[in-house]
Amino acid sequence: MPSEYRLILKHVDQPGYTPDIECYLRHGGYEVLRKALALKPKPLPDGRVLSPQEQLRDEVMRSGLRGRGGAGFSCGLKWSLVDRKSRKPIYLICNADESEPGTFKDRQIIYKDPHQLLEGIIISCYANDVHLAYIYIRGEFVEGAKILERAIAEAKAHGFLGKNILGTGYDLEIYVHRGAGAYICGEETGLIESLEGKRPYPRIKPPYYPAVLGLYQCPTIVNNVETLCAVKHIIAMGGTEYAKLGTPNNTGTRIVSLSGHVKRPGYYEVEVGKVTLRDLIFDPVFGGGLRDGHTLKAIIPGGVSAKVFKAGERVKVPRRTPDGKETFAELDVLDLPYDFDTIAAAGSMSGSGAIIVLDDSADMVEVLANICEFFAHESCGQCTPCREGALWMCKILRRMINGGGRKIDADELLRIADNIAGGRTICAFGDACAWPVLSIVSKFKDEFIARATAAEARRGKQTVDSERGAQCAAEPVSAN
Ligand SMILES: Cc1cc2nc3c(=O)[nH]c(=O)nc-3n(C[C@H](O)[C@H](O)[C@H](O)COP(=O)(O)O)c2cc1C
Ligand code: SF4
Predict the structure, then answer these.
(1) Could you tell me if 36 and 165 lie in one domain?
(2) Which of 18, 23, 163, 427 registers the highest number of CB atoms within 10 A of its CB?
(3) This model's pTM is above 0.70
(4) Are 220 and 93 in contact (CB under 8 A)?
């Protein structure tokens, strides 16, 4: 039986659970921080001694935790890449921008359990010798920023933040920084530019990998809200135990934002890879199925940047047999386990964990026009293929939905998207705006052609009618 596994969301939405520190402390809050701060140097059999910070980082590495912000990059590996020899300060930024359409998980933590996030940030900062951290929060989350400010003041008053935390000599300050509502501020290097007070133009990698040249050209860790919360649970239960949750290489739990034409849209925390798309969409514990009288048309499995799956599509993905051998299985997309690797092997991505379900009432030309409006508006404009291409695609689709479609539009959209995708741009936004076009147009091409054919026929008739009208006007009016 598929079911939720509430680790990060354990207390969220429980009756009587409030975002203040007293409530958090009553539920065992900040005990994991105490445990982390109490770690002693650990001698190893080979004579080396592991510092408490190295032990914490080892646990995170052992846990197999992959970032929940979109790319699914290993958290332990990211932390191991931080330049610790530069003698510059190391910063940590919590990415709370959450702007990917379809994603609404981080805000649940921020609004309903802010101290869990702070505890995760403080432990992560301690593990990485960070003394100054920022929470970069999406501009629209005005209330969320206030809740975090309040939580920071409470944590300071209780000695969990600020100078000499819990008498250990460790100092840490956390500041909340509000964005101004631009999607590109969620891209980690755009975010860093914005935090420095500049336009959020993403930086070129290499050389600007945040772990080496991040905020103020210093080593910087950028992690998503959910990732940092997971760190708290990893330290609580140990990396090895955490890695038993989920599936190999896709460990732990993740929060799925489920929206669109399902009966029970919402956020659900599940073990990674232990439930399929079918479970998430149709099981009464999750989406509860489609609206009555409708059939499934498409699934966007990881926010609007992800390539769409068409209902009934069959994909080949690697599978492991019970004796551990790797083989391939051909599956209906609904039977894909929802994890990073399988969704990627099937040609899309699970991204920020946002699943958008579309039933047969969805007009795919309108769906794509809506997505492209978003990307054309949000491109930062640095790279020509992205700036021009996103706008051209948007203009073509606007024209199509306003009755001006042409049969060549579908191929034209594919051509433009093809010229943006494939690493031609400074940041991943370029691919993100091309993928929905490439997948939706190729998988639903008949809808684009049908709309354009009808529009061309209408225009053809109008031309004939107006030419006839002009001819009539030129003829002498009969006396009758
Ligand atoms: C256009 C774009 C927008 C992004 N928006 C977000 C966002 O809102 N929140 C987020 O955590 N990561 C976002 N990311 C991913 C970040 O660049 C970065 O990979 C992430 O914050 C790292 O955290 P993680 O390793 O914990 O996932 C975005 C990436 C791109 C390319
Ligand atoms: S790909 Fe687009 S959003 Fe990213 S830097 Fe280039 S123009 Fe800006």
Answers:
(1) yes
(2) 427
(3) yes
(4) yes
Q: Are residues 224 and 288 in the same domain?
A: no
Q: Which domain holds residue 330?
A: 252-359
In a domain, 468, yes or no: no
Residue 475 lies in a domain: no
Dump pLDDT digits (tens) for 315-374.
999 987 888 888 999 999 999 999 999 999 999 999 999 999 999 999 999 999 999 999
- 351, 100 contact by CB (below 8 A): yes
Nearest to 8 by CA among 269, 323, 303: 269
More confident residue, 323 or 262: 262
Q: What is the pLDDT of residue 467?
A: 65
| Cα dihedral value 255, 259, 261, 262, nearest 10 | 30
Residues with CB under 6 A from ligand 2: 184, 202, 379-383, 386-387, 425-427, 429-430
Query: Which of 379, 391, 420, 424 should be mutated for ligand 2, with most atoms under 8 A from CB?
Result: 379
Q: How far is the CA of 427 from the centre of ligand 1 (A)?
A: 11
Predicted confidence (pLDDT) at residue 233 exceeds the cutoff of 50? yes
| 94 Cα: distance to centroid of ligand 1 (angstroms) | 10
The ligand 1 atom at the shortest distance from the C-alpha of residue 227 is 26
Instruction: Return the ligand 2 atom nearest residue 390 CA.
Output: 2
> Are 177 and 138 members of one domain?
yes
C-alpha to C-alpha distances, 103 to 138, 227, 287, nearest whole angstrom: 13, 15, 15
Residue 425 Cα, ligand 2 centroid: separation in angstroms? Answer: 6
- In eight-state DSSP terms, residue 286 is T
State the pLDDT at residue 394: 98
Task: Look at residue 270 and give its three-state secondary structure.
Answer: strand
Asked if residue 477 has pLDDT above 70, the reply is no
Q: 368 alpha carbon to ligand 1 midpoint, in Å?
A: 22
What pLDDT does 289 receive? 98
**pLDDT at position 461 over 90:** no
How confident is the model over 204-228, as a mean pLDDT? 97
Residues 104 and 25 occupy one common structural domain: yes
Task: With beta carbons less than 8 A apart as the criterion, state whether 289 and 262 touch.
Answer: yes
Question: What is the number of domains present in the chain?
Answer: 3
Are 295 and 443 within one domain?
no
The answer to the question of residue 461 being in a domain is: no
